[in-house]
Structures are given as structure tokens and as C-alpha cells.
Amino acid sequence: MRKEPIGSFRNKMPYGSVLRFSGKGVFVRIQMLSVLAFSAAASADSLVVGLSYGLRKIKVDWKSNLVVALLSLAGTVCSMILGRMLLPVLPDRFENVLGGGIIMGIGLFSLLRPWFSQKGKDGRERVPRALTLKSTLLLGAALAVNNIGLGVGASITGMRLVPTAACAFLCSLLFFFGGNWIGGLREGGTIGWLAEPVANLLMVGLGIFEILV
């Protein structure tokens, strides 16, 4: 049997297809990073609320955590569907600028909000002192509403619904549970003070990234 030179297989593959394959791989990685960054930013409120309960020595059980995560998931899915409906009517390339601008604007607003809002004497927002069924539903609804703007922006920039919603759901579960656990530790107060501004900066960075890419 005649053996072909090693380089013959390389010659049979068009150079452009290699570039397209490589470019697709890079694009997938960038999308994954965007989804992870969005999920972390969207779940920041869950982390802060979990920390707040932990600091008050209120333990969050898995049922309450699941209800909050499901309601937050519903808000993310509905807002991303709304963003997908708006996508066909937007001019070419405008969707990234609009979606990234929405995400960046929410991050900036959340970052500057403490300077314009009145809070309790301890500088933290008021939360229910006991995690009853009613307070769990109200908390989940509030977090779902908070995610509407982010979900619309993420969908407009081209993030896929299923992986984005699934990742946001898992992050909500982990962040709420982790925040509650960390809040019960001695260092919980310091971490809670840093969590919200870091998440808001992450949103601003994600918005800028989506505009430029």
C-alpha cells in the first residue's frame, strides 16, 4: 500500500476551514465566559441576601433556597424571551450596543445607589427577620424583578436562553446557600460588604465587553 506524505493531509484541508474552526472555538469560549459572568452578576443579590440572613443567624433550608432560585429562573427566562422578541427589529450591530448598555447601566446604577438611597442605621437594606413561606415568595419575586433588565440585555447581546438560564439557576442556588453559610462565620460581615460592589463592577465590565466584542 502506498503511503502518502505526512503533509498531504494538511494540504487537503483548506486553510480557511482551520481558521473557521479555530475562530468558532474562541467564540464558544467567549460566550461561556459571558454566560458565567452574567450568571454571577445576576446572582449577586442572592449572595448578599444569604449573607444578611447568615449574619442574623437565620438558617436558610433547601426548600426556601429552591423556591427563590425557581422564581429567579422564571424572571430570567421571561426577560430573555422578551429580549429575543425585540432582537429582529433592531438594526445590525445595534443589539450588542443596546444589550451591553443595559447591563452596564444596571451595574452603574447599582454601584451608585447607596449614595442616593436611605438605608437602615447599620448601612444594610432591611430584610425579613424570619424566612417564612410568605417572605420566601416575596424575596424570590423581588430577585426575579431585579433580573428582568439583565435578562433582556443578555438576550439582546446573543446569549443563548437554555445555558444562560441553567447557569443562572445554579448560581442562584449556590450563592444563596453559600452566602447564608459565610454570613454565619466571623468574617461574614467583611465579605458581605465587598460582595455587592464587586458584583456591580462585574456587570459594568460585562456590559463594556459585550459592546466592544
UniProtKB/TrEMBL annotation:
<dbReference type="InterPro" id="IPR003810">
    <property type="entry name" value="Mntp/YtaF"/>
</dbReference>
<keyword id="KW-1133">Transmembrane helix</keyword>
<feature type="transmembrane region" description="Helical">
    <location>
        <begin position="66"/>
        <end position="85"/>
    </location>
</feature>
<protein>
    <submittedName>
        <fullName>Manganese efflux pump</fullName>
    </submittedName>
</protein>
<keyword id="KW-0472">Membrane</keyword>
<feature type="transmembrane region" description="Helical">
    <location>
        <begin position="194"/>
        <end position="212"/>
    </location>
</feature>
<keyword id="KW-1003">Cell membrane</keyword>
<keyword id="KW-0812">Transmembrane</keyword>
<feature type="transmembrane region" description="Helical">
    <location>
        <begin position="30"/>
        <end position="54"/>
    </location>
</feature>
<feature type="transmembrane region" description="Helical">
    <location>
        <begin position="137"/>
        <end position="156"/>
    </location>
</feature>
<dbReference type="Pfam" id="PF02659">
    <property type="entry name" value="Mntp"/>
</dbReference>
<feature type="transmembrane region" description="Helical">
    <location>
        <begin position="162"/>
        <end position="182"/>
    </location>
</feature>
<feature type="transmembrane region" description="Helical">
    <location>
        <begin position="97"/>
        <end position="116"/>
    </location>
</feature>
